[in-house]
What does this fold into?
Amino acid sequence: MIKKYTYGTPFETEAVVVDIKAESTPEYGTVSCENGFCFEYQMEKQDTVFGLGESNRGINKRGYLYISNCTDDPEHMEHKVSLYGAHNFIVVSGKKSFGLFVDYPATVCFDIGYTHSDILKITCDDDNLNLYVIEGESAYVIVKQFRRLIGKSYIPPKFAFGYAQSRWGYVTKEDYREVVREYQKYHIPLDMIYMDIDYMQDFKDFTLNQQNFNDFTEFVKEMKQNHIRLIPIIDAGVKIEKGYSVYEEGVKNNYFCKREDGSDFVGAVWPNDTHFPDVLNKEARKWFGSHYKVLTEQGIEGFWNDMNEPAIFYTPEGIQKLKGNMKEFIDKEPTKEDVWAMRDELRYLSNNPSDYKIFYHHVDGKKIRHDKVHNLYGYNMTRAAAEGLEEIENHKRYLLFSRSSYIGMHRYGGIWTGDNMSWWSHLLLNIKMMPSLNMCGFLYVGADLGGFGADTTRELLFRWLAFGIFTPLMRNHSAGGTRRQECYQFERTEEFKNLIDVRYRLIPYLYSEYMKAALQDDMYFKPLAFVYPEDEIAREIEDQLLIGNEIMIAPVYTQNAKGRCVYLPEQMMMLKFLGNGTIAVDTLEKGYHYVNVDLNEVVLFVRKGCCIPVAEAAECVEKINTKNMVLYGYSESEYFLYEDDGVTKEYQKDCKVLKKG
Amino acid sequence: MIKKYTYGTPFETEAVVVDIKAESTPEYGTVSCENGFCFEYQMEKQDTVFGLGESNRGINKRGYLYISNCTDDPEHMEHKVSLYGAHNFIVVSGKKSFGLFVDYPATVCFDIGYTHSDILKITCDDDNLNLYVIEGESAYVIVKQFRRLIGKSYIPPKFAFGYAQSRWGYVTKEDYREVVREYQKYHIPLDMIYMDIDYMQDFKDFTLNQQNFNDFTEFVKEMKQNHIRLIPIIDAGVKIEKGYSVYEEGVKNNYFCKREDGSDFVGAVWPNDTHFPDVLNKEARKWFGSHYKVLTEQGIEGFWNDMNEPAIFYTPEGIQKLKGNMKEFIDKEPTKEDVWAMRDELRYLSNNPSDYKIFYHHVDGKKIRHDKVHNLYGYNMTRAAAEGLEEIENHKRYLLFSRSSYIGMHRYGGIWTGDNMSWWSHLLLNIKMMPSLNMCGFLYVGADLGGFGADTTRELLFRWLAFGIFTPLMRNHSAGGTRRQECYQFERTEEFKNLIDVRYRLIPYLYSEYMKAALQDDMYFKPLAFVYPEDEIAREIEDQLLIGNEIMIAPVYTQNAKGRCVYLPEQMMMLKFLGNGTIAVDTLEKGYHYVNVDLNEVVLFVRKGCCIPVAEAAECVEKINTKNMVLYGYSESEYFLYEDDGVTKEYQKDCKVLKKG
It folds into this structure.
């Protein structure tokens, strides 16, 4: 049961696809619109709060503060309140259970028992929004209702379930060839190599570095002969450069965001000064999306949209102010306060809230200040791409995902969880974030495995990859200047092969479960609380997850661990993919078990009465043979295998029931 | 068996108190002195590495990089390699077990399987050092041998086992009185209030703010009538101010660190420009230590020495360079690289390695560049204080601890683990750091409970205090500008009372175990691996600890947890201190157990065959009645209770055996 409450004059975010008539006063909590919007609800001691998609901390969001305000913050330590996405959906689960979706495109503050342990308080700066309240018998039921409200999730091509290597810093063809060569040398499967910003000419969107990629079509072909797809990045900012057609067209047609005075707004990002396409404007969106063709025509089948919070390193306005303050600083004997003021001004020059208040969108004839719709930018940039790609070939699936997002974007692409760090705590955050993202419709998701910033270790990479095996998007990515982290950079590289082989052996199952979740508005990652709500121990476990309907995982996420303690909420069959390629099977009873997991091993637990298909290892997704799979699990169980061509939008072509003897 | 190997001409750190004749080549590993000192050892897969005192990550230090280089870094995320202390002692534990103490006062790099999983590599910039190699049958035995090598640990007065409130930001007497009043209102025990930098006049050491503390002696008395002791901070830097006697004396007698040209080195800290006392110089150390008397004469009985890495906000040299670069910046159209260069220059202005290379110590007629002996500064500042206090009253124990430290300082004072953050991960780091600190001789230790930087939550404070109950130093401290975190700042303050009452009920046991550890060169906090080395599960548990010889604890350190899974390596008796002041007792068998722990409850586990004394709650340490204690634990067990006057250095005065029926 979904009810809608409209306050003021909301901006149409197009997050919701179902038309619901607005009602008057919600039954849950109290709403006040005196100083902006405020929803308050008194929580019971035992209430759990789920949701918020890409946000910090646990699966249970209670006990902290979260601010939906798309932010480029790679060093997101645990006190950070804003990440790259804005996913304003929560479920309060307890004696009374209900979901809330705050459809509001600017900053939303969720104080979930932070200021006062028992008070849930949601506030917005103004009161122009739609509030959806969803009733249901359980958190899981509420989530599935919400998912129907927001429409079907994005479905990638099947190759996107392969393993991908990425690094900010690949410049020449030789850099890419080295990756292929090294992976092939160790027979480690690989389907994609990502192209970070250096492939472009001077960081100009939809261009190729002339020196390195003068015959790009040929190079794409060469890579495909090695069954590797190249996935280039597209950034939000368009370089200001005379003669650069994207820039010229945008200026000419008023497709860029503008300052108050009507001039094109300038923000510095990778190419230095840029303009931002006004992707909230239909025409500009269509125009920007049409450029992806430049690359698809050369054989490209997937993209990642980046820097689309939008991140802004600085603006001319900010630099002018800075220079003024520097002049004053130079002329005095500075105190510590003077020094700190200068330090902070430079520290907060990037992504500065004041910069988001000096540019405007033009939507349906209205001029809207950016900060009022900030959280929609990445969503609409990715929508631009998706709509552009659909124009090119509307039956084909393209790989597409974004850094910044808002609910609604889940229909157009996936997300990676943005720049993270080579921290064990970010591996754990990755684990906890996945089901929350699923609740908000984002199914094609994953984090930078091994960690983007800071230096990884062999062990951290192993453990992170072992979790990444289960994330639809499985990509090893790292920042320039950090320790290299392709598998072949570490001793005993061959040990990585077994790990990544396991991914490919499980793709038939993982893809099948992904497709079922996508087509049935279901979750691919589920917290134990959703499946075992009566089990008090299971209910609060956040470091084990269910993947699809058949398996539970319990990733190792601590340094120097030889294994971990796992809680089984029911009897399960443990499959251990050993280093030698064989699978050890053991039935474990309900309760706690210490499970040894060596670095190159993968452990999963098949739920009672279930079985899963396991294929032979293959060097790429296309070569996975689903004809000779072995079913592992309980005898006399069945598995419904979803299969299709993995390329077109003709879904449910080759499904069948597999029966285990 | 301890062997000493001398390379080059070591600086005498006085870390070691036993005279050992140097031998030629160590049996373990290989040493090279080609480019500085390098020790390399091939680890076995199963080897564990303990030690490194105050350092990041786990109890098992394997798998990462640690650099001994005393650094003021409050935001120590998990990739940080240097913290406030430098404790160069490790134990390799496996088929072959041995300890290593690298007695070297400058930067030491411990690469413990970071670059290559199996290689332990210890490097120093030059090869003037003493290396001690300690053999023993187990890690625990090796630690105890090492502890004899470095001499007896510091013993604080008994009142220092009370609970303390602190906050950077208490300015007036009223601020202190408010703390007392509020704690008394809720009958929450309290023994100390810490005085952060604002008590001083313009941040000048050994002064009192004239406006707020013109009759300080009276105020100290007033507080003592409320059984509260005030514990002021002393910073390393001495303000440059004409007429300020400490400054004038220091300049006159050449007691400050000097530049190459013989002028007094200037570094900005809280008072803006300061000079640093040359505490490595015997005369200067004696002089600096003699000033603590200014405060003891007014009734003060304890101090915390801060900023003694030494932290340096900036130097005139750094500002001059900065201004030059700003001038250039102003004159150009900056690129992103120019902006980042300015940002980084300001970001790294504080604690900049180049500043540590432009000042000198004068030790025994020799001029020594600071960076060559950097890690000894905090140690010797605290030694100055300890020796100064001993001069005042040599039978009295003073409370004394330091932020920066080196092994050797453990004889003169305790340490708090420096500025940390209100992060759950820093609560876990606190837990893991404690036994490592004990290995290195530091027994009087604790972290800022609730977290210093960032905003805490009621729940985090509860869980952190619940662990803090077991740390000798139990202090709630936070930074100015963060959320207030005295217990009375949160709803249902009365729930904190039970928690802190438990501390006082356990002080007889905790103090007794502390004193036994201090007098017998033993550990107060032990990892499970030291006590249950044959138990494969216990061996790698890092989130449970043994406290003294009788109990094990398993702190809750995750948000929204209603309890946790605890592993018992043997049958134990669980004592749960309930919210109503009673104690629930339950015998649990070896293995995993889920234990519910409400926020205001404390759980501990009495080892098989043991018992512990539990007193009634008391409002301060002095009022704890050890005559009517109840023994909890196994029947027919005994407990050896250590008692003394808690004030003088007459130890072992009132020990007795308590027998449980």
Q: What stands out?
A: The radius of gyration of chain A is 25 Å. The longest strand of chain A covers residues 129-135. The mean pLDDT of chain A is 97. The first helix of chain A runs from residue 139 to 150.
